[in-house]
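Interim report, section 4.2 (structural modelling).
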Amino acid sequence: MKIEKDRVEILSGVRFGKTLGSPVAFMLRNLDWENWREKMARGGEGAGVEPLGKARPGHADLPGALKYGHRDVRNVIERASARETAARVMAGAAAKRLLDALGVTVTGHVVSIGPFGVSRDLEGNPEAAGRAESSVLRMADPDAEARCVKWIDQMKEAGSTAGGVVEVIATGLPPGLGSFVSWDRRLDGRVGLALMSINAIKGVEIGDGISLAGLPGKETLDEIFPGPSGGNLLLGNHSLPFHRKTNRAGGLEGGMTNGEPLVARAAMKPIPTQSEPLQTVTLGSWELASAHKERSDICAVPAAAVVAEAMTAIVLADAFLEKFGGDAIGDIICNYLRYLERICAR
Amino acid sequence: MKIEKDRVEILSGVRFGKTLGSPVAFMLRNLDWENWREKMARGGEGAGVEPLGKARPGHADLPGALKYGHRDVRNVIERASARETAARVMAGAAAKRLLDALGVTVTGHVVSIGPFGVSRDLEGNPEAAGRAESSVLRMADPDAEARCVKWIDQMKEAGSTAGGVVEVIATGLPPGLGSFVSWDRRLDGRVGLALMSINAIKGVEIGDGISLAGLPGKETLDEIFPGPSGGNLLLGNHSLPFHRKTNRAGGLEGGMTNGEPLVARAAMKPIPTQSEPLQTVTLGSWELASAHKERSDICAVPAAAVVAEAMTAIVLADAFLEKFGGDAIGDIICNYLRYLERICAR
Amino acid sequence: MKIEKDRVEILSGVRFGKTLGSPVAFMLRNLDWENWREKMARGGEGAGVEPLGKARPGHADLPGALKYGHRDVRNVIERASARETAARVMAGAAAKRLLDALGVTVTGHVVSIGPFGVSRDLEGNPEAAGRAESSVLRMADPDAEARCVKWIDQMKEAGSTAGGVVEVIATGLPPGLGSFVSWDRRLDGRVGLALMSINAIKGVEIGDGISLAGLPGKETLDEIFPGPSGGNLLLGNHSLPFHRKTNRAGGLEGGMTNGEPLVARAAMKPIPTQSEPLQTVTLGSWELASAHKERSDICAVPAAAVVAEAMTAIVLADAFLEKFGGDAIGDIICNYLRYLERICAR
Amino acid sequence: MKIEKDRVEILSGVRFGKTLGSPVAFMLRNLDWENWREKMARGGEGAGVEPLGKARPGHADLPGALKYGHRDVRNVIERASARETAARVMAGAAAKRLLDALGVTVTGHVVSIGPFGVSRDLEGNPEAAGRAESSVLRMADPDAEARCVKWIDQMKEAGSTAGGVVEVIATGLPPGLGSFVSWDRRLDGRVGLALMSINAIKGVEIGDGISLAGLPGKETLDEIFPGPSGGNLLLGNHSLPFHRKTNRAGGLEGGMTNGEPLVARAAMKPIPTQSEPLQTVTLGSWELASAHKERSDICAVPAAAVVAEAMTAIVLADAFLEKFGGDAIGDIICNYLRYLERICAR
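Predicted structure of the assembly:
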């Protein structure tokens, strides 16, 4: 939420509002910088700065300090902080501008916080996701949202924190992004990498996801029918010569987009910082200690929806450039439209 | 299962049973090759070979044919088949030999098929996973396995198919593999990519996974205590100066291994081929058709456990080489032992 | 030369003479394999195989054995042999088929062997390069070739070997392959990597190359004039609205193709094996020894021309796919033609 | 030269003078920025800014504008300017700090400008290269330097420009960096990429380079002798159990360092800007025009020596990390020393 006070500066790569092909550098100043001027100084010897040796469970502190040989977990905390995802949101914003021009919309929303989730019909639903953007918790279902606000308050009171699940939906995607020919070109894997790499995400699903594993095969399929789908228009109002009535696969078959909206979900564990002291050890002495408590939010799930949206946009923009090449936006659009003409021909 | 009849030939890169540093080429001959000699011939014009235009739902057929401009879905079917994962198992076998030498064991087992799962205490349990290897369905729980066999039979009778969930556990891992410093170096993301890229996998979880999202923060943490853990010995019998009593995080914190076993799960949707004809369309004419039915297994979940084990081994072997360098196995072991001395020092 | 007796088998990725999008596996059997059956066996313990410890100067033997901890330089010799470049020629053949379809021709020829070179006007000359293909030493100048044959004979008699310089010319290239925006996307660098990575190559030049460094600036430029060039037709007979009268830059400006033919040269040192014994040391004992002499060619420069042609074709095919995307050859051609329409518009 | 007035700010990744493992961001402000504020503004529509359509020969202007669809070559000029190499020098400075700790020194010097070069014995000579740093033209030979100064003056008077050749020497390198096992891991190729990607470089050589192609084989070898070399001490005063009396190979055999100093040369064409107007065309109208003349240096060869040094340092630092892994400098040093113990054992 605090991110909204931040202002991004573009340092390079843009002229008269358009990218030039050269690298775009964004800068987001740490507004809290003054408070860290001494403790995190670039220069000097750090004289007088007491190393922080208590590793917080659930954070990067302990493995990070061991890996890099640090005695002060502050060397890990700053970069490992979810603050790093602000950079992904900046890159995602650029990716979204490209996708806009290709008729693609990517939207992240919150589908549950703690044990409370939105009505099932609001999942995998692009309109609902769009509506969610303006709500407090980025949720499309006001009743569920009210329950979630309560849960967050309860957690706050108990000195605890709340997790939840976010969903990203992308519409306007043609069939054929990604590929089945090599495992690392599969779009499901690349979405898996992008979402699972977000801080605190512990699970990722595409479409109906894990629940598909428990069903008989015939209840998990998306049959194909002739004729265009009502809703799914592609760039230039192209429509595919076939449609589906379900989207259990979440828009991916064989590691490729299949013409249906891409639907991916990511589950975030609660922020590990707790009011009640947690047992841990101190680096070096390895004695029992109480975990250092940084000031912390109670629930970062709405922010995670924004980050998940950004990461998905980056993956999709990559997949478009891979398939349609083009160094100039005009070329990309032309190449893409020609492909749509080919595959939409009847 | 049929894989067991296959024999892998090593064509290069190995001498007197040891890799040489140069590329290792494996060859697995398609035993069914004779039957495809004409239809899938390398040369000729394909005269007399009728294109197969009916795209099977749930497979790569439709997006694959559109993407590459094929009129015959056989051009897609062969490579998109799960048969491709045999190559991953070969590479994984090499990765496992390296991990063996570093004291790491990676084991995949089946935790559920259809709606039936193993007893909860057999999840995240390395011993159970090891035991599972010799069972029919690669499950550690005979009662659950019996129920799953029944479910598969039921599905078979109904002309349907069965999905399930597999779990991979890796033990003997030191803290500090992977990194928090860049999103694409996070081990959770890399495991996400590796598992989500397996055919038919629609969801991936680390540790307690998605269920963590619904709990109060304090029930999701793995506190840290002084003193070595009883079980988790590293190479050369090194033990860490700390331990945990839980492993909800599945061995990863901040995108790095944390000294606990890595636990990852992947959910496989049922095989999309069904006895009952499925609605689809024919490429080009875009008329309604019944999906072409290839002979098919009912349940590929035990095979997926083997593939997931292989993919995880590849990711971990990469992470070791990244951290410890070394061109010769002796060098890698020495570098790794020195690291253990540093981080296990009390 | 011996390569001509080899037959390549295509194991996968091709059907009815066309690639499928999936990986293409080539296999080239080592015809000499029987002779190495015991000494280079995959299995067994190597009992009775005496390690070869004498490292040949000028080869990978010594650094390779130290790097990988080998006691037997045979573990290095086989893979480090120029025989490895046969695989590059196979991949290059596939790249050349793609380039053919895009109207691009890539030809390697020999411009000098030992101190004798072709007439200066035959350098950077695509027709001459084409003619060279059928000559004994792949040279376009029969007089120079005769002198080179003599030089090779002289070297042979003296128990020595001969080096030389090869040149690759690619015609039909549009402006704008490669990029100036990041150093690793520059085409001159990528050609530098591709050619310098060929065994025994010790120098690479683009266009007039090193000689440009010694001239006054004004003698090194390729001025630009309005109107199409006579010779340089692009796919579909497109011609650029400008031309040059010189090509000192070898077709690259700012790390990109500029519409002129790409001209690159690579200098090969003589094969290091000599009749006269060379001083060296034995691994492990580090005592003085005479270098082990493998049977060897006298001059590999014509073969290097073939390899350089292949490597350049691979780089150019990559650059085309990067710029024009397209999964199907029809798409690539359409995207490319559209680009030509844009840039050739007057 | 103007670079010396620049001041680099480190924005992230460094604390108390040490890198943290996280990305290091450098910022170098463009001191000339005020003058471009309007013409190169990030925002606005560029109203009143006349597009510059005249493409300068020898620059990225023409292919860059066609590639990206620009009508104003300023969109290309800024990023394609050699000014971009300042970023490489910053990254190279970090790489050099790492190499320092590993006992490796990398030095770039100028060996010729125009037709005048340093005395032959000052090439491939680390001491000479070190001495050159303090001279005006970064040359170790005052007589040659005087002639070069004169050449530059002559070129200036003639409204022309001067090119030249730079050489980079790296000492303290162990055998075994890089590898012969795959073409893209060969260090000669990677040096080729790194140097050829520097603006205006048209040729690269390793060791005696192109001249080796013209000699009989026996005059091109570096025989190997028992016993340590006098000069070439590695980290911790380790010395190899063998030495050479020559270094014609420039320290690389089989794509790997061989224990001798790495010697690479890069030839820079003269800066293409000339006083006398050059013929060119205007984008879009394609009419004859005189090339736009930016203010320009006469000779950038000494600056190129600095850039070549930086790029070589980056390649070598990469090769060290690849071979020795290690996330902490202490680990890297330990792993490296152990390797030296192994290969220096007698």
